Amino acid sequence: MKFRFSVLCSAGLSLAASVSAQDLVVRIGHVAPTSGGIAHLGKDNELGARLAIEELNAKGVQIGGRKARFELLAEDDAADPKQGTAAAQKLVDAKVNGVIGHMNSGTTIPASRIYSDAGIPQISPSATNPKYTRQGFKTAFRVVADDVQLGGTLGRYAVKTMQAQTIAIIDDRTAYGQGVADEFEKGAKAAGAKIVGREFTNDKATDFSAILTGLKAKNPDLIFFGGMDAVAGPMLRQMKQLGMTAKLVGGDGICSGELPKLAAGSLADGQVVCAEAGGVEGGQKAGLDAFKQKFRAKYNQDVQVYSPYVYDAVNLMAAAMVKAGSAEPAKYLPELARTDYPGVTGRIGFDAKGDIRNGALTLFTYKGGAREQISVVR
User: Fold this and answer.
1) What are phi and psi of 123, to 5 degrees?
2) 76: helix, strand or coil
3) Contact (Cβ atoms closer than 8 angstroms) between residue 130 and residue 107
4) pLDDT per position as a tens digit, 37-59
5) Integer Rg of the chain from CA
6) Angle value at C-alpha 269, between 173 and 159, nearest 5 degrees
7) Distance CA 114, CA 75 (A)
8) What is the CATH class of 148-276?
9) Which of 112, 177, 178, 341 is buried deepest, with most CB atoms within 10 A?
10) pLDDT per residue over 210-250, tens digit each?
11) pLDDT of residue 11 exceeding 50
């Protein structure tokens, strides 16, 4: 009898082990630049994904009657299109169930074809170039407003609210930087501004003396920069060295908590106005504030820009899987397309192209070395 009891116990333990082994493993890919000049932004995004994954596992989420165990497969694309497509193929080969990313439009757009060909849903938390969702890929989504809204709104704001009559434009020739600068120019011209100069640099440049000296002679009221904070910081330093008093306006790429440090003491109060391609107001703001406090407590650092959008993207992807009863891309994709998710960044739903419906923009300036919100616009 003792022998039989031992056999039964062993069988019971084996059964328990096999039940545990039957957990559904759900692999979520995340891609952002975690090396290079804007690594601080990419790491911020990745931490948002890690927080969401950790919380999903703590909740014991079930998909199709099975306990799901979420795993994050994080890749670095260094904001380089070639590295971005290599990272995308690596995630496809790893048979991920979905992808959150990429961060930059220049890496998101070429990678999106690879995910589309593999039938893997992709949600970008920050790519704003319109082309991303205009390629006809059913797998491509974004949770922020695009450059048409962001650049156009900033262009109108620069003229109507900031009273700029003469404007110079600089972009970094990336898909994001040039795209948002083009839309800004359209918005500013339509509102009645005169564009006195259109220059370009690159996303790794640190010397803008020739460009800025030429623009100084044209005495613009305002300079718009289409690019990232790692370039905008040195640009602000050199503007100060040249005695330029023009305000600097930019999109979400410069609108980070790190900009005052990158400007190294050259950022005057109210000198910069920038827009983040998202935003909440009223009662919804409490949820975002709570997220920022939780993020700060866990990682001992403040949110840069888009970690809340990454956090929402992971959670709404998981919610679509739960609703579909499956983590298989083809089965949960229809649920993702018709999602209506209450996120910390606001209510999220997609239009037929995969763009967020009723996307908001938040305008910021900087005072005392910190970001200060101006308003939320739609």
Assistant:
1) -120, 115
2) strand
3) no
4) 999 999 999 999 999 999 999 99
5) 23
6) 55
7) 15
8) alpha beta
9) 177
10) 999 999 999 999 999 999 999 999 999 999 999 999 999 99
11) no
- The answer to whether the CB of 43 falls within 8 A of the CB of 34 is yes
Do 23-144+285-358 and 148-276 agree at the fold level?
A: yes
Tell me which architecture the domain covering 23-144+285-358 has in CATH. Answer: 3-Layer(aba) Sandwich (3.40)
Rounded to an integer, what is the distance from CA 203 to the centroid of its chain? Answer: 17
Phi, psi of 243 (to 5 degrees): 75, 25
Residue 100, helix vs strand vs coil: strand
pTM of the model: 0.87
State how far the Cα of 172 lies from the Cα of 267, in Å rounded to an integer.
20
Beta strands in the chain, from DSSP E residues, in sequence order: 24-32, 62-63, 66-76, 98-101, 122-124, 140-142, 166-171, 194-200, 222-226, 247-250, 272-276, 341-343, 346-348, 361-367, 370-377
Q: Which CA distances in Å does 299 have to 2, 111, 112, 145, 311?
A: 53, 29, 30, 27, 14
For residue 13, the model assigns a pLDDT of: 45
Q: Please, are residues 182 and 224 in contact by the beta-carbon 8 Å criterion?
A: no
Could you give the angle at the alpha carbon of 103 between the alpha carbons of 364 and 96, nearest 5°?
A: 145
In the numeric block, which tokens belong to residue 353? 């192209």
Question: For the chain, what's the residue count?
Answer: 378
**Strand spans (E) along 201-255:** 222-226, 247-250
Query: Residue 212, class by beta-carbon neighbours within 10 Å (0-12 exposed, 13-18 middle, 19+ buried)?
Result: buried
Tell me how far apart the alpha carbons of residues 115 and 119 are, in angstroms, rounded to a whole number: 6
Name the strand (E) or helix (H) holding 109.
helix 105-118
CA distance 137 to 139: 5
Look at residue 273 and give its three-state secondary structure. strand
Q: Could you say which DSSP state residue 339 is in?
A: -
Dig out the tokens for 323 from the structure. Answer: 């609703």
CB 188 within 8 A of CB 195: yes
| Residue extents of the structural domains in the chain | 23-144+285-358, 148-276
